[in-house]
Amino acid sequence: MSAIDPTPGPWQIHSDYTLEGRTMVIGNVDGEYIDGQAHTTFDFVCDTLGDDDSGSASIAVANARVICAVPDMIAALKAVNLDARPSNWDDDDDPKQVAAWRKLDAVLAAIGGAA
Are 25 and 70 in contact (CB under 8 A)? Predict the structure, then answer.
């Protein structure tokens, strides 16, 4: 699998887009006012879908909120990896600590963010 960078964060819910339980997540938002009117450009990140009749539209919005937090979560994981990891983490006597650092390594590798 080749590494492709995701849409730059922050990501947000496109508040003008709710159609049949769909919630659009956008990123790389840029905008300006031209002649008193807002003109905005953005990159599409994803849609979350829900069925208004079953109440899952609320779940779709909740899922979109979690998705919007992903760029910040990745940045936090990278910061912990670089700033908080002890240099001798793999020699730690606490197997839970070693397992936690290995999980962090696996997550960063899965997203292509290994340090």
Answer: no
Phi-psi region of 82 (alpha: psi -120 to 50; beta: other; left: phi over 0): alpha
Full-model pTM: 0.72
Q: How far apart are CA 94 and CA 11, in angstroms?
A: 37
Is 32 found in the same domain as 10?
A: yes
9 and 21 together in one domain: yes
Domain that holds residue 29: 1-68
**70 and 12 Cβ atoms separated by less than 8 Å:** no
CB 115 within 8 A of CB 101: no
Residues 35-69 pLDDT 10s: 887 778 888 888 887 766 666 777 888 888 899 99
Spatial distance between the Cα atoms of 65 and 79, rounded to a whole number of angstroms? 22
